[in-house]
Amino acid sequence: MSGAEVDLYEVLGITNNASKDEIRKAYRKAALASHPDKVAEAEREAAEVRFKAVQEAYDILYDEDKRHLYDTHGMGAFNGSGEPGMGAGPDLDDILAQMFGGMGGMGGMGGMPGGPRANKPRRSPNEEQKYEVKLDDLFKGKTVKFASTKNVICSLCQGKGGKEKAQAKKCATCGGQGVKQVLNQMGQFITTSTVACSTCNGEGEFFSPKDKCKKCKGKKTTEEKKILEIYIPRGAREGDKIILEGEADQVPGQEPGDIVFHIVEDEHPIFRRAGSDLTATIDITLAEALTGFSRVVIKHLDGRGIELQHPKKPGDVLSPGQVLKISGEGMPVKRGDARGDLYLIVNIKFPDENWNPSAEVLEKLKEMLPKPDAPIPADAVDEVDYDPKGNLDEFGAKDAHGGSAWEDEDDEGEPAQCATQ
Ligand SMILES: [Zn+2]
Ligand SMILES: [Zn+2]
Prior knowledge:
Blueprint: H1 8-12, H2 20-33, H3 44-61, H4 64-73, H5 92-101, H6 116-119, E1 127-133, H7 135-140, E2 142-153, E3 169-170, E4 179-186, E5 189-196, E6 205-206, E7 221-232, E8 241-244, E9 259-265, E10 272-274, E11 277-285, H8 286-291, E12 293-299, E13 305-310, E14 323-326, E15 342-349, H9 359-368, H10 403-411, H11 417-420
Helix pairs in contact: 2-3
């Protein structure tokens, strides 16, 4: 609820008799031009304000009913969230007077008695939420729409809680303070603490059942379903916040708080991210590593195939664990065209037990591939048997003072020396 009234038609740059189609086109143009993600850092705050205004203007003007309300009553017909208030178009000043002037007691808990109104929070609390986003969506950017249920000021009583002419009764339990002092005994000490009055729910006053507003039943707010839209910019990362201003639950007499989404990055099955760089493992067969290939080795987060040609010069081979750095194929950097780098780690797929070469083939391979190093000299030599499927988890396990056995003992909860003191 800002003081100066803006002309919604002006915001979109259209005339008062613009058609729906013209409104939609003007909205697209204005939204694109003022999108916070499309401007430099310094202009971002101003752009966000403009973007919100454009959005609000469109929400109202594109809906025929709302547009009619706006044309006949101006912004007073809306309660700040783009939703129509009473059909008759209440006077904004009346609502404000009612909100700030008409209520005794205090809304919240634990204030100081005597100065209740001064302690009333001026904004309803923000709603903080985690929002899990797939790496693909952080790469491409994404608009998400979802239905949200929130408390809005009751449109019938404008947050009064009672019928139009009804007067709220002062709460006798708390004497209209909304709070009570309670005595607590702690050992031999007696302390007092201030708690919200349960008779009037901390309001200091209430309406008798017959005077309660029919719509909200005296609660002053009603639940409303609303479709919210958030835009996740390209390159956003874990911990980034997306703020929907004023979309938190409405509380009478307070500016609504924001819904704040905290981005949590979902783990990706293939790509790992560090800042704006990405890494992934690619499988290359032994034959490809030795003789070369030209093919798509991985599908990128935007669905493109990434093609590599190997070798770069004849005779080059790929080794297990070798890292191929591809500049500019990492994550996008927010609000810019720059991109991080992609690091591909080579996994050589050696032939498995299904490979069944003939003796001649093996002989040929031996001839063609590089020869082994010189034999290791030793005075005595034993030929030994071995298990080709040894497991390193067993390494040290037989010995109480060996590797994993020692760890188990530690787990049994014997306190470490430094902890006992
Ligand atoms: Zn009370
Ligand atoms: Zn009501």
